[in-house]
Amino acid sequence: MNSEPIRPLSGAPLWLAAFGLALANFVVILDTTITNVSVPHIAGGLAISPAQGTWTITSYAVAEAITVPLTGWLAARFGTYRTLIASLTGFALFSVLCGLARTIELLVVLRIFQGLCGGPLMPLTLTLMMRIFPPNKMGTANALWGMTTISAPILGPIVGGYISDNWSWPWIFYINLPIVLICLGLIIKLVARYETSTERVRIDTVGLILLVLFVGCMQLVLDLGREHDWFASPMIVGLAITSFVTFGAFVIWELTDSHPVVDLRVLRHRSLWVGLLSMALGFGGMFAMIVLVPLWMQSVIGYTASEAGHAMAFVGVFAVLMAPVAGKAFDKFDPRILITAGMLWLVMISLLRTQWNTDGTFWDYALPQLLQGFGMPFFFIGLMMFSLSAVPMAEVASAAGLLSFIRTVAGAAGTALSTSIWDSSTRETRAELAGTLNGADGTMAQLQAAGMSEGQARAMIERLVEAQAATVGSNYVFAVSAVALFIAAWLVWLAPRPKTMPGQAAMGH
What we know:
- The chain is mainly alpha-helical.
- The protein folds into 3 domains: about 1-200, Growth Hormone, Chain: A, CATH 1.20.1250; about 205-260, no CATH class; about 265-509, Growth Hormone, Chain: A (Up-down Bundle), CATH 1.20.1250.
- The protein is built from 21 helices and no strands.
- The chain is globular, with a radius of gyration of 24 Å.
- The model has no long low-confidence stretch (mean pLDDT about 85).
């Protein structure tokens, strides 16, 4: 698709352009998690229930998950640079309108449009990053992009909580405007000449409808399953069947259509489909812990949102510091070794968390977060580079779109399944503990002797049992995550060692 060789940038223009692209990727991923901790504030501001408030998260995630795999088609039809500028502009516009919304119905509609504009930004920024960097610095390019992808979901709840507590909830949306304006200024000035060639192709209407049905129903199953008791609900069963059937029809249609809206033929590259499998398991396992750790800290240990956020923030320290080291290491060593080592490190950290109990100190909980940062760049950045290593530049947007889609879906699945497993494991453990309590009568007598009423003493024992049950349940989830990460660590060996960097493979590969 590229008609002429691309001359990479160098010096200050290269780093300014890279900063603009990485920041654009950062802000859109930040918005996937910044709303999570602000739901109570949004619900209070709009006079709705917290359950209704979660639709601000679901609507954005569904819209984003739909447009992410469409990115390859959009880039081919309108050009990578033009699509990026349009997406950024729309994202900024709908961010401001979200802040101005004063009804939940309007906010949900605007969040859908914000997600539709934000979805393509992840793969598009990666595609352009590869075009502006010289081949010998491709590892650094991936490291910089990957660093923003790792840090954004971690910083989202911290930033969202601070803004909601100290300002007001609309500012979680307004904050996007100055960031996007900086991105637009740098990208328009420095990246415009790296536009890709375009071709006029018809819109694959059938494929688009099937994609919307498949992704929309799947996301709703993941988001609403727990509160409707999963497959005990006819609605969840209906959504799951619809998603499964439309997924099969979508795959068949896209593989046989002459101009598919999502180019699944890119999966002919073995490193890509192997990378997708490893990304799905690895990111799902990792995100399960990212969601569960602050939940457990707040509901069981009694930490405030800010205290839990501070403990979580430590994961970003070594993740950011190790990203450039990982980028250089991937230029020199077999990426499969580094990816496996990074993921096995995350397995070890997961197993470390299975030893947590309710008597730990702040550092007992924060230290695994800090240590986890060592392995994250080797897992995430390495997997992105490995997956795209055999993909020609003309197909990078499609491949990056699929990777971002898998990451989005795996994150949603990890969130839904971890909280569901935690709930069921906690209930089972509570029932077992309640039936095997030793010396409960003696403890009741001691508490009553200390001045408590019988009801107060019983309530205290129930809280202790609940805390222990929830801790055992969370340890079980950490163990399940460790298994998922362990399997993912070895999947990369199903593909050969990459011979080229992302975007350098020949079209006939």
